[in-house]
Amino acid sequence: MMDRLPDYMQVFYKELLHFFDEIKQQLVHTEGLSSRMYYAKESVKLQARAYLKEAEWLNQKKIPTLEEYLFVSLTSVGIAMLMAISFLGMGDITTEHAYKWILSSQNETVKASSLICRLTNDIAGHKFEQGRDHVASAVQCFMKQHGVTEQAAVEELWKKVDDGWKDLNEECFQPRPVPTQVLTRILNITRSLSLFYKDDTDVYTHSDLKMKQQVAELLVDPIPM
Hints:
α2 packs antiparallel against α3 and α2 (33-60) runs parallel beside α5 (96-103). Helices cover 69% and strands 0% of the residues. It has helices spanning 7-26, 33-60, 66-76, 79-86, 96-103, 108-129, 138-146, 150-173, 180-191, 193-196, 211-220. 28% of the residues are buried. It is built from 11 helices and no strands. The radius of gyration is 19 Å and the shape is globular. The chain starts with 6 loop residues before the first helix and ends in a 5-residue tail after the last helix. The protein has a single domain (31-198), classed as Farnesyl Diphosphate Synthase, CATH 1.10.600. It is mostly helical and 225 residues long.
């Protein structure tokens, strides 16, 4: 399996295997660990399949419709994978049922969070991304599909972000078959996006702009309590 991969991918794959081995060692006495590890690995597989589809679009120089794009990119943005992996250390709160819920294609809570993340990411980073080989962003997809300017596309996508927040808030106020702590984790990671993509600037990618200073203020030079 490993030998079939190109050299650069072998490096990543080895680190991925090491990552899961390390988690397994740290949580060796956790009840139900094998089931949790299974779903965490499944989330990575879903992520990889989405990346592969985007790579196909890039090689074909295809700009899909926004609907086609979001069908794939709401997975590739990684919210479900981040949730599944972060649940590994949450103890009995994250049951097998919670994992099935988080990875369900019908999960409107994760879908709303993923939509917010994907669109804010694309709005902030599409100009930099299109300066190199990169799959078309939501901005390019919307522009081509509707024949509008970049500014008009961005304005419409921000409206969809607002709708995503409305959907997420509604989901969090409705009874759900998972503990509140699970919903809170989804909500908190979505809230963090305002830090990464504030003022249409992608400080997640360009961490030297603001992120480095913010991390230092939080972890290196925190305000004394």
